[in-house]
Predict the structure.
Amino acid sequence: MRSQGLLRFFSWIRLIAALALCADVFDRPETHAREFWFEAQELDKEKGTLEAGETKIWLPPAVVIDQKEDLNEPLWFIVQNPTGIDHEFAVGGLFMLVSEEEAIPEIKLDPESAGLLPRNIRVPLHIKVKSGQTRRVQVAPRGLVGEENLGARYRFFCPKHKDIRVSRFIYVD
């Protein structure tokens, strides 16, 4: 009789522990992020320099960032280059967040802890994307948040191929 009581007691304990674990998992704030994907296209080698002005290096041709929806969480640009040549991806007027160590090659030390300062620095959004590579960059909210930025338009392009680039746009809504 007593062993049955203990079994029931431990069954209840396991049930309560499982419920507590579920409550902890479901109660945690989810860290979502908004991602926009860009993909490089093959350059049309059969066009001359003058005709190549129609080449679309980065697709999609336009992206709309909704202030109310997309900026409630971290904003990331995922930039893919499945082509056989290296490209660059730049957005005039927007910034990306990079670690201080990545932005400043010389190591800055915190005098108190003698360690690296754990912070991000805002730098112009311009990255190199090698052939076959995918890069993920966090976009700084400057230029995207607030009434004064509604209707803003930012050009994205490949600075490496200036003679054949066609600008595409990021719009803020």
Q: What stands out?
A: Helices lie at 2-27, 67-70, 100-103. Strands lie at 34-40, 58-59, 62-65, 75-80, 87-99, 120-129, 134-139, 153-157, 168-172. The chain has two domains: 1-30, 32-172. Residues 29 and 73 are 12 Å apart (CA to CA).
